[in-house]
């Protein structure tokens, strides 16, 4: 793995369920990568339909 240092192209990718943009695997998602659907907290919160949250 030392040969891949700094090269992120080998990491798995998914598309965000809200915005559709591709995002790559992160260390913090190591244990639950199969359940990750959104690229960011903003996309995760906007998909829940929180009308009060969107007006901030």
Describe the overall structure.
With 56 residues, this protein is an alpha+beta fold. Helix content is 18%, strand content 11%. The protein has 2 helices and 2 strands; from the N terminus they run ββαα. The protein has helices at residues 41-46, 51-54, and strands spanning 13-15, 22-24. The longest helix is centred in the last third of the chain and has 6 residues, at 41-46. The termini are far apart. Mean pLDDT is 83; it is low at 51-56.
Structural class: alpha+beta
Mean pLDDT: 83
Strand content: 5-15%
Question: In angstroms, what is the radius of gyration?
Answer: 14 Å
* Low-confidence parts: 51-56
Helix content: 10-25%
SSE topology string: EEHH
The count of DSSP E runs of length 2 or more, i.e. the number of strands, is 2
Give the spatial strand order of the biggest sheet.
Answer: 1-2
Q: What's the story with the biggest beta sheet?
A: 2 strands, antiparallel
Distance between the termini: 43 Å
- Using the alpha-carbon principal axes, give the shape: elongated
